[in-house]
Amino acid sequence: MAKLRNHRTENRKVFLERHRWLQKTICPICNKRRAERYCPATGEKICAVDCGTEREVTIDCPTDCAYLAAAHHWEQSHPKPLAENEIPFPHVTFSAT
Ligand SMILES: [Zn+2]
Ligand SMILES: [Zn+2]
Question: Is pTM beyond 0.85 here?
């Protein structure tokens, strides 16, 4: 008898913990998507979409934010190619005088 009661309490505890964990993983910014990125600026997990779109907009990410660093690194390693008509004065050369 006592054994059975213990088993039921244990089940309830597991259920509550899982429930809390599920609530925690919902992004607090949009309250829709799954929070999967820990953002140091908000101090909690937010979803990947908000991390990408709100970063440096409404979220003031510190420089040690892993995702901010990754984004900056990506921008640096994928520079926008300069179109030929965007190069100022392509035929002008500067000769040392
Ligand atoms: Zn979100
Ligand atoms: Zn961040």
Answer: no
